[in-house]
Amino acid sequence: MEVNWENIWEKNYERYTETMRSGSNDREYWSKRAADFSNARSSNDFEYGRRVLGALWSRVLTPQSAVLDIGAGPGTFIIPFSRKIRRIDAVEPAPGMVDKIRENAHRAGITNFCILKSTWQDVDLESISGRYDLVISSLVLWIFRDVWHQLQRMEEASRGYCCIVANVANSNKHVDILWKRVTGCDDKWPSISEYPLIFSILHSKGRKPNVSIIEYTYERSVEDKVMHIKSLFERRIPVTQEMEKTIREYFIELSENGKVKEPGMSAVICWRAHESCIF
Q: Rounded distance, CA 213 to CA 46, Å?
C-alpha cells in the first residue's frame, strides 16, 4: 500500500497547531523572540549556519552563487553564506528579526544581501522565478499545512537546488522536561518531525534528495534560555511567575559560568529543483 506522506504531514500539522493560542505565529511573536534567537544562532560564530554551508559547499554552492533564504530569522545563513558567495536575499516578515539581520550584518561587515520584508506566502513568484542557484529554509515549513505546495514554490524560485534544514534527534529534551514540570501533565511538547516527513514527501514526488547530517553547539545565557522557553510555552498557556521561576532554576542548575551549552543535530536535505535525479 502506498503511503500518503502529505496526509501524514497534514495530520501532524493539525495536532501541532490545534492547541496554539491566537497570534502565536505572527510577526509580533517572532519579533519578541529576535534577541534570544539571534544569540543562539550567532553562538560560536554562527556555527549552525557554517555547518550548513559546509554541507553544501562545492556540490551546490560556489563563490558565484545567488541564494534565497526563506524565513531568515536573525541572519542564521546570511552571515556565514555572505562571506563565501556572491549574494543572498532574505525573506523575513518579523521587524525584530529584520533589525537583528542588519545589526549582525553590520557587525560582520556584510553588505551583499537584500531583505524582502514579507511572508513567504506573499512573495510574488513571477518576480523571482528561476533567479537563484539555491533556495533554502530552516525551521519554517511547520507553519504550512500545504507543505508540498510550498516546496514547489521553492522550486519555482530556483534554477538549481532547493534545501530544507530540519532538526533530528531529541531537540526538545529540555522543553519536554519543563513542560511536564510547569503543567503537571505527562504529555510531551507537541512537535512535527520535519526531517523524515519532508524526505518522504520529496521522494514520493519523484525527487531524489541528498541528506547530510550536521552537528553543532549552541551556547546561551540562562536568561536567554528562560526567555526562549517562556515565549515557547506562551504559545499554548499563560506563563505565571511561579512557572518562570521553575524554568529559571532548571537552567541555573544546568549552567556553567552563566551559560547553557546545548548540542544540536540537523539534517540538510538538498535536491535539484524540477529534476528527478540524485546529484
A: 17
Cell digits of residue 99: 533589525
Q: Give every strand in the sheet of 132-138, ordered side by side.
A: 113-116, 87-91, 66-70, 132-138, 158-167, 259-272, 210-221
Ramachandran angles phi, psi of 278, nearest 5°? -75, 145
pLDDT digit string (tens) for 236-268? 889 999 999 999 999 999 999 999 998 999 999
Domains in the chain (CATH in brackets) are: 5-167+193-216+265-272 (3.40.50.150)
Assign 180 to helix, strand or coil.
Answer: helix
| pTM greater than the 0.90 cutoff | yes
Per-residue pLDDT tens for 82-126? 999 999 999 999 999 999 999 999 999 999 999 999 999 999 999
